[in-house]
Amino acid sequence: MGSEAGRRLNLDTINQHVRAAKYAVRGELAVKSEEYRLALAKGATDLPFKQVISANIGNPQQLDQKPITFFRQVLSLLENPQLLDKPDVLVNELGYKPDVLERARKLLKAVGSVGAYSASNGAPAIRQSVAEFLERRDGFPARWEDIYLSAGASSGVNTLLHIICKDSSSGVLVPIPQYPLYTASLSVLDAQCVPYYLEEHKNWGTDVSAIRSSYDKAVADGIDVRAIVIINPGNPTGASLPESDIRAVLDFAREKRLVVIADEVYQTNVFVGEFISFKRTLRRLQQEQPGAYDAVELASLHSVSKGMVGECGHRGGYFELVGFDPAVQNEIYKFVSIMLCAPVIGQCLVDLMVNPPRPGDPSYDQYRAEYDAIYRGLHERATALHKAFEQMEGVECGAPQGSMYLFPTIRLPPKAAEAAAAEGRTPDEFYCMRLLEATGVCVVPGSGFGQKEGTLHFRTTFLAPGTEWVGSIVKFHREFMDKYR
């Protein structure tokens, strides 16, 4: 037969930018962990563990975080509005509070049906809810016209990078270590990642001198640096930025005419200090120095996937644009229109996140109790995991500040590095693979997020319940170190 009978696509003929992209949180280790999970489900008894702990990704409900009752009850009525014809049954027999029914009716009026498309940038009434939330959070006005509802924050990032990156010379400053969404997306766009290193010895703080150095080098190399990404609170580091750091970044962005992408999806996951938004800080600077910051372009993102909501699978999020040219916003609208709209049920969940029950509402007490219990549980598990790392030889880890992760430094014996090289792996990849094989705990090597040369890390969530899995990490580490001394 002629060559026409062969497959058109192979690894050499597909888009090579996709092939080059790397996304470690769902990479080889994650694939291997799912193979183990399937084997256990089929009754395997030859593994040295009884369960797989997916500590590689911030997926709260996979790790037994319970949904907020108010949210799920409202969603159930949105999916099946006929239930609203039986209010007595809902309230008296199924435990629905009257405000659940009221909210469902309000949202159905706003969207018509969760099975229908909305406006491409989201249902106007829900965008108005987001704007009102931002006004309450920051103390400054927000315009619903500047809110874009998205399929999680990741979709918003994809939109923004497509708009910002003009061609292969376009560069974006990205913090290292970083969430690999950014480097992978830039790779697919054939744009340039301009890394700037966070300061581990300063609780992973943002150092403008490091940003400036990276910027200058990139410009000297012919890169058109157009934007800077800030993840606050940090992923994978958990760092929560003080206002002084945020001001310094905004000053630099103004000086170099950089679009600021503020990834703020962990804004409710703060254990030390308080969350300070880029929007509030920018507005304060504009008040203090009228006219000086008016041209700063800021895009800030939030999501229902994290925080105490943890509804990753519903794919809801938003981004707000501040200081953007209206003509550019028209192009952004066109771009999001190509995908028609974000999932409407996810949009409704965004509304619930930004406008939850308030004091005096029938559902408030239960909502508050559930919300606070999730927060306390996350903080307690973060503290317990941090204490475990403090016991482990060659492991250093700052106290948990926020988000859902810890990112400890590990120092491994030379023999471990030799064994890793023999397998064609980096030492941190080797360590994490051995950890998975011995304990069923899946974490992500620091090389998947970027790290300073000569350092090794791994990222783990602290979402999984219980302490047995933490003990298994401590035991594994002791045996690993003894084996490779």
UniProtKB/TrEMBL annotation:
Q: Which domain of life is it from?
A: Eukaryota
Which SUPFAM superfamilies has this protein been placed in? PLP-dependent transferases
Aminotransferase class I/classII large domain segment(s): 98-467
Q: Which cofactor does it need?
A: pyridoxal 5'-phosphate
Query: Which Pfam families does the UniProt record give?
Result: Aminotran_1_2
PROSITE patterns xref list: PEROXIDASE_1
Keywords, comma-separated and alphabetical? Aminotransferase, Pyridoxal phosphate, Transferase
Task: Cite the record's note on assembly.
Answer: Homodimer.
Query: Which family is this sequence assigned to?
Result: Belongs to the class-I pyridoxal-phosphate-dependent aminotransferase family. Alanine aminotransferase subfamily.
Q: What is the name listed in the Swiss-Prot or TrEMBL entry for this protein? A: Aminotransferase class I/classII large domain-containing protein
Species per Swiss-Prot/TrEMBL record: Remersonia thermophila
